Hints:
Elements: H1 7-29, H2 36-55, H3 69-93, H4 96-102, H5 106-117, H6 124-142, H7 156-175, H8 182-185, H9 188-213, H10 222-250, H11 252-258, H12 261-273, H13 280-297
Amino acid sequence: MHQRLTFSTALLLTVPPLLWAANAVIGRAVAPLVPPLALNFLRWALAFVILLPFAWQLLRADSPLWGRFGRFAVLGFLGVGSYNALQYLAVKTSTPVNVTLVASSIPVFMLALGALFFGQKITARQLLGAALSIAGVVVVLAHGDFEHLAQVRFVRGDLYMLVATAAWALYSWLLTRPGDPAEIRSDWARFLMAQLVPGLLWSGLFAAVEAGVTTQSIQWGWPLAAALAFIATGPAIMAYRAWGLGVQRVGPNIAGFFSNLTPLFAALFSAAFLGEPPQPYHGVAFALIVGGIVVSSRR
C-alpha cells in the first residue's frame, strides 16, 4: 500500500528534478568535450566506484542478484543504460529547457502505463492535477507571454527525450513490483548497485557502438572531471536514491508529477548562467505545478 504524500516525502521527491535540471544544463555545457553515450558510461562507471564500498557483496558468486538478474537487467537498461544516454543525446541538438519540457510528459506516461499495464485507475483528481501541472510547464515555455509559444521549435533531440521519458515512466512502475530479495531491496546502495551492474554493461555497449561511428574524441581536463564528479554523485546516486524511495512511498502516479518541477529548475539554472534574475512567471509556474501535485495526491 502506498502512503499519503507527506511534507518529508514531497521534499524527497523535489531532490531528483532539481538535480536532473542541473544534469541537463551540465550535459549541454560539456557536449563539446565528450560524446553523449560515452558521458553516460563514464558517469555510471564513476558511480559504480563510489557505491562499491557499500555494496560489494552483490558481486559475490552466491549473491541473490544473479538469481534475479533478468529483472535488474531490464531496470538497468531503462534507468541506467537508456534514460540519461538519450538525455545527453538530446542536449546535443536541443536546449536544457526544451529537453526538460519534453520530460514534463512523464505524468501522462505514468497515468497511461499504470492504467494499461499495472491495474491502476485514473481519477478525476489525477487528471486535474496533470492539467494544472502541465499548465505550469506551458507558462515556463511561454516565458509568461503566450506569443512566445509560436517561436518554440522542437528538434531531433526532443524526440530522443520523448523516448527517454517513456522509458523512465516504465522504469518507475517496475520499481514498485514485489519479489526482490530482501537482502537487496532493504539496502538502498545494494538496490541501486543491482541495477547499475547490468546498466553499466548496457551503457558500455552503447558507448562502444558510438565510438565506432563518431569522430568526436574525449577532451580530458578539469572541466570534464568536475562535471563527471557532480553528475555521478548528484543526478546519479542521490537522485536515483531519492526517486526510488519516493516512488515506493507514494507510487509512480503521484511521484510523476514532481518531474514537472524539472523544466522550472532548468529555466532558473539557465537564467543563472546567463546572469538573468528569476521572473514573475516562474512563480506562477511553480504555483501551478505544486497545485497539480497537491490536487493529484489528495484522496
